[in-house]
Amino acid sequence: MAALYVGDLHPEVTELMIFERFRPAGPIKSVHICRDRKSGYSLGYAYVNFCYQYDVFLLKVVESKGYGYVQFESQEAAASAIKRLNGMLLNDQYVTIEYFKYRDERKPEARPQHQANNLFIKNLDYTIDDKCLCTVFGEFGTIISAKVTYIL
Model's pTM, two decimal places? Predict the structure, then answer.
């Protein structure tokens, strides 16, 4: 069995919708949308469990660019990474790097509450993984965490 993470889901997405979307890739054993235990509301991500490992590798992440997060130990390291890497080529893709903002902070009327050491990187090539982010951004300071996610 092979599991595929699917993130940034709209709250109204159902298991059936995900199943239908990924069915052409191969036999699906199950689809699980992760939900809040108390409220039952979607947490915005799901797992598609394929019957066979090779079915996950039939999948191509070409419809949308990936994004990632890097959390530095210091604000200075994050600022330096933005200054040097924003708009640069990373595996043949021009990346955009900005401070991370929570979803409710992205609204125009919201006041910024982000921590200045968390970065959001968008337009990542599908070949970029967590280890690559650590390698590229590691020269700017100690990284607490790095995560790449792809929207299919």
Answer: 0.40
The C-alpha angle 143, 63, 125, rounded to 5 degrees, equals 35
**What local confidence, expressed as pLDDT, does residue 32 receive?**
92
94-129: b (≥16 Cβ within 10 Å) or e: ebbbebbeeeeeeeeeeeeeeeebbbebeebbeebe
Kindly state the average pLDDT of the residues 121-138.
83
Mapping DSSP onto H, E and C, the string for the chain reads: CEEEEECCCCCCCCHHHHHHHHHHHCCEEEEEEEECCCCCCEEEEEEEEECCHHHHCCCCCCCCCEEEEEEECCHHHHHHHHHHHCCCEECCEECEEEECCCHHHHCCCCCCCCCCCEEEEEEECCCCCHHHHHHHHHHHCCEEEEEEECCC
The alpha carbon of 38 is separated from its chain's Cα centroid by a whole number of angstroms, namely 25
Q: Is the CB of residue 147 less than 8 Å from the CB of residue 71?
A: no
**Cα–Cα distance, 45 to 6 (Å, whole number):** 6
Residue 61: predicted pLDDT: 40
> Minimal CA–CA distance to 8: which of 103, 128, 93?
103
